[in-house]
Amino acid sequence: MRWLRLARHSLLRRLHAEFGDRAHFVAVHTARGHRLLPREDVEPALRRFASSFAHLEFPVALDLSGDLAAAYGTEGSPHWIALCGPPEAAVARSVYGSQDNAQTRLTYWLAEAVGPSPAAGSAAP
């Protein structure tokens, strides 16, 4: 199984559409580097964003303390982390940034790790 922590909604939707049948996606909203807010102040807005704005079709985790992001050594937002497992879910790839280069590296790594989309390999004769 492949577990991915990703942060940009349009890229997330595209990657999920292309690789979602072969990889698991999880977005993590973290407080790392920001002021800490109580769950009741953050969760309703996060749910609205994920369902009504970003239209994410995969889970969104809430890292209220920032401890999860710190444990994976994230450098900012977005920071893309691909975890491979089980059993230990070790970091397979870590990419910081939303620029085209970071997005391209993540897309290429996914294609290499889980294989290209079946539709991509089926060109008409």
TrEMBL record:
Record-listed E.C. numbers: 1.11.1.24
Enzyme type, top EC level: oxidoreductase
SUPFAM superfamilies assigned to the protein according to its UniProt record, in alphabetical order: Thioredoxin-like
Gene3D superfamilies per record: Glutaredoxin
GO MF assignments: thioredoxin-dependent peroxiredoxin activity
Keywords, alphabetical: Oxidoreductase, Peroxidase
The name this protein goes by in its record: Peroxiredoxin family protein
Protein's organism: Deinococcus lacus
